[in-house]
Each structure stands twice: as C-alpha cells, then as structure tokens.
Hints:
alpha+beta; minor pseudopilin epsh fold; four-stranded antiparallel beta sheet; 1 helix
Amino acid sequence: MAARHAGFGLNEALVVLAVVAILAMVAVPSxxxxxxxxxxxxxxxxxxxxxxxxxxxxxxxxxxxxxxxxAGSSVVSMSSADGTLNRAYTLDGVVAAADSALTxxxxxxxxxxxxxxxxxxxxxxxxxxxxxVSAVGQVRVQ
Length: 142
C-alpha cells in the first residue's frame, strides 16, 4: 500500500496563484486612485493651513502677505510686502490648475477674496478641488 502525502499539489497551487493574480490586477488601479485622492485631501488641508498662517503673518507683521500658486506647479509661495517673509512650500501629488494669488491685508482681510484650483498630478486620480477663500479669510473646499 502506497503512503498518502498530505498537502497541495502543483495544480491546486497554480489555481490559487492565478486567483491571487486576478485579484491583484483588479485592486491595484483602485489603490492608485485612492492614494491620489488622499494626496489631494492632504494638499487641501496643507494649503488651508498655509492660508491661515498667511492671515496671521499679515496681522503680526502689519504688512501685506501674498500667497501665490503658478499654473502647473506644486509650489506655493508666501511673501510679505515689506520683504521680511519669503517662503516656499511644496504640495505633494497636486498642481495648481491656474495662476492664483491671494493677498491678506494687515487687518487679516483678504483683498479680493478668491479661489485656488488644485488638480491631481497622478493619471487616473481625482479631477481636483477648489478652495474658496472668503473676504475674512475663511477657507472652504469644494
């Protein structure tokens, strides 16, 4: 009588491997889209924080402070009219859809309230988001 071996044979292992490969092919595009969405959300939060910081800097310095984005760039610049503030920040995974600049007055009010349009820099990522800044500096994401 021949001894019986427990375990999986080659055929069973190949079937399991094929199923895992098919599941991975389905999941990978979804993961990429999810990651791009999270990057966009982080960039929105970072930019909203920078706008709040610019408002505070304008009040503390008693000077105009401008936040600027260039179309196609992920760099946000913050500068003061008196030249004492000049910083640049990089938003990962997003780019500005259009040139935008918001200027905060020494009172903390935004000169000509406006909007900042962000787009995902990843193919297949979310289309983008719009940050709307009110005259008093409140930021809302659409």
